[in-house]
Structures are given as structure tokens and as C-alpha cells.
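Async update (no meeting this week)

Hi team, since we skipped the sync, here's where things stand on the single-chain job. The sequence we agreed to prioritize is pasted below, unchanged from the tracker. I ran it this morning and attached the output directly underneath so nobody has to dig for it. Comments welcome in thread, and please keep replies under the output.
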Amino acid sequence: MNRLLTLTLLLLPALAGGEPSLVGNYPLSGTLGASGANYLAVNKKTGNLWIVGGLSQNLLIVDGVGKKPLYSLPEFRYVRGLAVDSVHDRAYVADYSHGYKLTVLDTKTRDVLYRYGEKNTYFENVEVDEQADKVYVIRQKYD
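Output:
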């Protein structure tokens, strides 16, 4: 059974002048699949989609134009946030698989640039302000 990720372009009716429209269906099956997709970010420069597979426990990069999977990064499990900074070529992944860290990736090479963490802390819900070159996360402290 093929699972489909359906992306819907949601624009405010005042801006778009109408209802939200369906952009496309992207199959997530096969060797580079993302089963149980639960986070999505778009690289505005390349059009690539960064998708977290919650069940398959990977980070999948899909060609947004050709609708073909490009890369699968299996080391990303238990993700709690994902954002892409298209201006500075970085992706931010808040994940528990690396000891409750915020991982910074180079979007061109997919290399890990940095893993940021604090003792007794975990991160969730990553957002990027590309113009200001800032990253916002929810930081939870625990004992």
C-alpha cells in the first residue's frame, strides 16, 4: 500500500482571493520513504521538501518539482521540530535521537554543522526568521 503525502497550499482568502488549492501528491513509499510523516519544511531556494518520517524514523529530502526522493537521513528519530533556512542554507532539526539536541545541517551537503544542547533540556517547534538570521525554538527544562 502506498502512502501519499498531500501538500495543500493554504493562503489567506484575502491574499489568494479564494479557497486553498491542492498543490500536489508526493508518494512516500519505496526505499527512500517516510512512513508516518509528521513534520514538513520547504527549501524556498531549491523547492526541495524536507519531510520527517515518524514511523520510519528518518529525514527524507524530496525534489519538489520532480516529486522524486533525493536523500534519506536515517539517523533522525524522535523529531519534535523541523525548519529550513533557504537564505543561509541550513536546516534545523529538534530531535531526541542525539541526546535532546537541536541539530544544524548544511542543506547543500546534508553535513551536520552543529548540535546544540543543554543539560536537562529538550527542544521543540523550530521556526526560522531567514531575513534576521534567527532561529526560534521552544525550550523545555526538566529535572
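Quick observations from my side:
Residues 1-16 have pLDDT under 50 and may be disordered.
The helical segments are 13-16.
Reply here if anything looks off.
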